[in-house]
Design goal:
The chain is of the alpha/beta class. The chain has 2 domains: about 160 residues, HUPs (Rossmann fold, 3-Layer(aba) Sandwich), CATH 3.40.50; about 140 residues, Rossmann fold (3-Layer(aba) Sandwich). The chain contains 11 helices and 12 strands. The strands form 5 sheets. A 3-stranded parallel sheet has the order 1-2-3, with helices on one face. β2, α3 and β3 form a beta-alpha-beta unit. The two termini are about 35 Å apart. Bound molecules: zinc ion (ZN).
Length: about 300
């Protein structure tokens, strides 16, 4: 659904979204994120969109997109409009890169990925003019600027882009567009007003605000929900057999566990209810201020 379509339908201005990568089935943490963004939208009579981040061909698994959509349906998380597949959006990303390039904000970098990943990039290639014949990524120049925002769950968050993050990748050497670019372009395209997503993406938000700023786009507001971890503090990333069994046998119970993870009150009378009933009550009772204000929470129960 495009911004124009949203306006034409005279919906509430609130637009939220869930934008998973179809690298496999949803795990408990991604179900929590989907549910939180859904409830935040529906409790304000807003739109809730689904977008599939299927750009990274190395990570995308065949059939995972359909599997994710089926899971959302099983959980009665019904989305508005048609699903947006980011693999159809190359022209928009290319236009954005051109705009940044024309502002002299991009340069080519041929530093090996394994040397720079997860660290502040020191600007090694800023003034090197890496030749076009070399395979290179495109980085966006940052400034010695503090970028901050008030997260609706985690509170104030401020970073100095140059010192804490460094110039960041907007297109990888294998031509895959960077998350900081694509998420900004597509949230703007879809008219998203608030992004509710996992706290593992909190640290990358200042990069996205920097892209918004330089493309002259209005930034949405953000709320980062705690990430579900295992008992050792490691992010859950697998859809395990226990989760699959519960999803198929009792999806309403899975919703109740996700609501409890999000600090929401759940009525004991809901035991045995169907997913539509659980969701209706969850929309009525949704209280974002009850979501724990921490980046991670271990998921202690069996699922
Ligand atoms: Zn470099």
């Amino acid at each position: 659904m495009t911004r124009a379509a949203v306006n034409n339908q005279q919906f509430s201005p609130y637009t939220g979204r869930f934008a998973p990568t179809p690298s496999g089935p949803l795990h408990f943490g991604s179900i929590v994120t989907a549910l939180a963004s859904f409830l935040q939208a529906r409790s304000q009579q807003g739109l809730w969109l689904v977008r599939l981040d299927d750009l990274d061909t190395l990570r995308v698994k065949h059939g995972a997109s359909d599997n994710i959509l089926r899971t959302l349906q099983l959980l009665s998380l019904e989305w508005d409009g048609s699903v947006l597949y980011q693999s159809n959006r190359h022209a928009a990303y290319q236009d954005a890169l051109e705009s940044l390039f024309n502002q002299d904000l991009l340069y080519r970098c041929d530093c090996p990925r394994k040397e720079t990943r997860g660290q502040t990039y020191p600007g090694t290639c800023r003034n090197r003019n890496v030749p076009l014949c070399h395979q290179a990524s495109l980085r966006m120049r940052t400034g010695n600027t503090r970028i901050g925002f008030t997260d609706h769950i985690q509170g104030e968050y401020v970073r100095n882009l140059e010192q804490d993050i460094g110039d960041f990748i907007v297109q990888r050497a294998d031509d895959i567009y960077g998350y900081a670019l694509t998420v900004v372009i597509d949230d703007d395209f879809q008219g998203v007003t608030e992004i509710i997503r996992g706290a593992d993406l909190l640290a990358s938000t200042p990069e996205q605000l920097w892209v918004h700023q330089h493309l002259g786009l209005t930034a949405p507001v953000y709320g980062h929900v705690p990430v579900a971890t295992d008992a050792h503090g490691k992010k859950l990333s697998k859809h395990d057999a226990a989760l699959n069994a519960l999803l198929l046998a009792d999806p309403a119970e899975l919703l109740i566990q996700a609501l409890q993870f999000l600090g929401q009150s759940t009525d004991p009378g809901l035991a045995g209810a169907d997913t539509a009933t659980v969701i209706q009550q969850a929309i009525k009772n949704w209280d974002l201020s009850r979501v724990p204000k921490v980046p991670t929470i271990p998921k202690m129960t069996t699922v």
